[in-house]
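Let's practice the habit of predicting before peeking. Look at the sequence and jot down your guess about where helices and strands might fall. Then scroll down.
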Amino acid sequence: YGNYSYLEIGEFIDLTAPENSDNIDENGNFTLAEFSNTKGEGYAQTGTFKGQIRPDGTVAGAWSSPDEKKIFNFTLNAIPLNGSADLQMVNINKQEGNCKTEEPCAHIEIIYPVIAKLPGENRQAVNNINNAIARALAESMPAEEPTPPQQAAEQFIADFKEQDASYKMSWEHEVMTNIYHNANNLLSIGFSTYSFTGGAHPNHAEAFYNFNLLTGKQVELSDIFSAGYEKRLTMLAEQKLRKLYAIGAKTPLTEAGFFEDKFALNDNFSVSTTGIAFLFNPYEIAPYAMGEQLITIPWAEIKDMLKP
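Done guessing? Here is the structure:
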């Protein structure tokens, strides 16, 4: 799974397994369905990637449009950028039962980064970021109290086994890492959580974290924008939100299903080379049925508000 973007457009295009099926084999051959926002159709499949992860780490194959009338070959190479962190990904994956059958099963998977090295060789900065990541992960685990991932995974499976056999149902908990920016001494990552242990529907959310790679400190909005930015940035974000849902400038937001008429920015943001994105998770400003709200503001529209 993953995503990519065109620099001149900026918005991320999602890549996922077709119909949530297994999409890679032991030889590295894979299929990825591409989804993005389209004019007229909304969020829809816009293409398919078929290729192979080669032994040398490169990725190659072909992209095709939904009607297969357009086909382009592609090659993907990993090139470290200036001022980037050396990330080592950790994968904790536990399962109880066979999740490919209709029998109840439990599956928990946690993928997260550990900072191995930073551009400035600052060990304290490495420790600061790794500790912040550890705290964020512990809070996203399926436990009543913040719990380290390995311990939480073991407890999740143990709790599943203790379910009453008469009411037993499948459980799932996933925490995936999205990397939105890793260059110029700035790291922007998101931890996306999906969880289902019974109830009307699964729960999902994503929390963004941004780090200064020279100091190891988290980057706040006040580190990015000049004083007095709040009012104008909030206004621009609300305009983007209204455009997403085709809400008129004078129409109350509650008429479109939102909880409040007064819009306010949150501090759940990510940064990329093209702009800043604010994410409102389900239930934050709108009902679950409306999903999440991702508001992207290009740097070009707010460059006069940025600090040097």
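How did you do? The chain is about 15% helix and 35% strand.
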